Amino acid sequence: MELIQTIEQYAWIGWLVLILVFLVIEMLTLDFTFLMLSIGGLAGLGADLAGAPIWLQVIIAAIVAAVLVLFLRPPLLRRLRRGEDPTPSNVDALIDLGGRVVSTVDSHGGQVRLSNGDVWTARSDAGELQPGTPVTVSRIDGATAVVRATIPTSTEDPTA
């Protein structure tokens, strides 16, 4: 019984530690989840300082955190990401990028020069592609571009 009284007497220290841990994790993740959990911990600390028993403190903290995660976090994330640049970058920018076969590309290997000037090791989705064949990147598999042949449209210069 003395242990429970000691825990209840020093629960405020536990709440402070929990709040600080959640805030540090939030600074590393920047996803608002741990911020909401730390605010829930703040509600638990408030309940402790008001004299609530430990079980009620935990329930209050859990309810406040759950409400914040479910109702406040989504609009905050939308507002945070509203100004993001929608342009794909890195490997995502290569998907659907055109190019031409430099050395014969089959299911095992070959090379293509993409329209951005990069030369990539490539594999074909289906069949063998001869040098000069126009291709489109369908996906990136490690450091290899997986390509498929494309039919040039009438606006493209076939000698390019």
Overview of this structure, please?
The chain is rod-shaped and about 80 Å long. Strand 2 and strand 3 (119-124) form a beta hairpin. It contains four helices and five strands. It has a five-stranded mixed barrel. The longest helix is centred in the middle third of the chain and has 28 residues, at 54-81. Helix 2 packs antiparallel against helix 3 (33-49) and helix 3 (33-49) packs antiparallel against helix 4. It has two domains: 2-81, no CATH class; 90-149, Beta Barrel (OB fold (Dihydrolipoamide Acetyltransferase, E2P)). The protein is α+β, with helices and mostly antiparallel strands and 160 residues long.
Mean pLDDT: 90
**Low-confidence runs of at least 5 consecutive residues:** none
Task: Provide the gyration radius in Å.
Answer: 29 Å
Secondary structure tally, helices: 4
Give the termini separation.
85 Å
Helix share of residues? 40-55%
The oligomeric status of these chains comes to single chain
Structural class: alpha+beta
Beta-strand residue percentage = 15-25%
Please count the beta strands (DSSP E, at least 2 residues each): 5
What's the number of structural domains?
2
Largest sheet: 5 strands, mixed, barrel
General shape: rod-shaped
The secondary-structure element order is HHHHEEEEE
Topology, element by element:
Layout: H1 2-9, H2 11-29, H3 33-49, H4 54-81, E1 98-103, E2 111-114, E3 119-124, E4 134-141, E5 144-149
Parallel strand pairs: 3-5
Antiparallel strand pairs: 1-2, 1-4, 2-3, 4-5
Short précis:
The protein is an alpha+beta fold. It has helices at residues 2-9, 11-29, 33-49, 54-81; strands at 98-103, 111-114, 119-124, 134-141, 144-149. It folds into two domains: 2-81, no CATH class; 90-149, OB fold (Dihydrolipoamide Acetyltransferase, E2P), CATH 2.40.50.
